[in-house]
UniProtKB/TrEMBL annotation:
<dbReference type="InterPro" id="IPR004360">
    <property type="entry name" value="Glyas_Fos-R_dOase_dom"/>
</dbReference>
<dbReference type="InterPro" id="IPR029068">
    <property type="entry name" value="Glyas_Bleomycin-R_OHBP_Dase"/>
</dbReference>
<protein>
    <submittedName>
        <fullName>VOC family protein</fullName>
    </submittedName>
</protein>
<dbReference type="InterPro" id="IPR037523">
    <property type="entry name" value="VOC_core"/>
</dbReference>
<dbReference type="Pfam" id="PF00903">
    <property type="entry name" value="Glyoxalase"/>
</dbReference>
<feature type="domain" description="VOC">
    <location>
        <begin position="4"/>
        <end position="134"/>
    </location>
</feature>
Length: 135
C-alpha cells in the first residue's frame, strides 16, 4: 500500500491576496479556482509536485461552524495560531532573502535544537508558514 499527501487545507480571508502570495511570491501554480455563493476555493501547489496541493478555503464555508466559532477562528487566524503548513527547500537562506521584504517574518533562518534549520512567516490570512532546509 502506498499512501501520499494529496491535499492540505488552509483558510484564507482574501482570495486575491492569497493568490498573490502563493502564486506570485512562492511561485506555486494555480490548479483550480472555484467560486460559489461569494466564496472561493483556490488550489495551488509546486509545479514539480503535481499530486500535492494546498487548498485555500474560506473559513465560513463549513455550515456546521457557529457564528461564535467563526469569531474564534477569525481571531486565531489574525494571531497566526489557527493553521499552518511546513514547506521545504534546498536553499533556505536564499529563499528567505527573496521573501523577507514581502512577507511578515516571524523567525529568521535558525538552527533548531532538534536538528532542523528553518524560518517562519505568515501568509496574508495569518497562517503560519514554516520553511525547512532539506538535507
Amino acid at each position: 500500500m502506498n499512501i501520499t499527501i494529496h491535499q492540505t487545507f488552509l483558510p484564507h480571508t482574501d482570495p486575491e491576496a492569497s493568490l498573490a502570495f502563493y502564486r506570485d511570491t512562492l511561485g506555486f501554480e494555480v490548479r483550480n479556482d472555484v467560486g460559489y455563493e461569494g466564496m472561493r476555493w483556490i488550489t495551488v501547489g509546486p509545479a514539480n509536485q503535481p499530486s500535492t496541493s494546498i487548498v485555500l478555503t474560506p473559513p465560513a464555508a463549513d455550515p456546521s461552524v457557529t457564528e461564535e466559532e467563526r469569531k474564534i477562528i477569525s481571531d486565531m487566524m489574525t494571531k497566526g495560531t489557527y493553521a499552518g503548513v511546513n514547506l521545504a527547500t534546498d536553499d533556505l537562506d536564499g529563499l528567505f532573502e527573496k521573501l523577507q521584504a514581502s512577507v511578515e517574518v516571524v523567525q529568521e533562518p535558525t538552527d533548531q535544537p532538534y536538528g532542523i534549520r528553518d524560518c517562519a512567516f505568515r501568509d496574508p490570512s495569518g497562517n503560519m508558514i514554516r520553511i525547512q532546509q532539506t538535507p
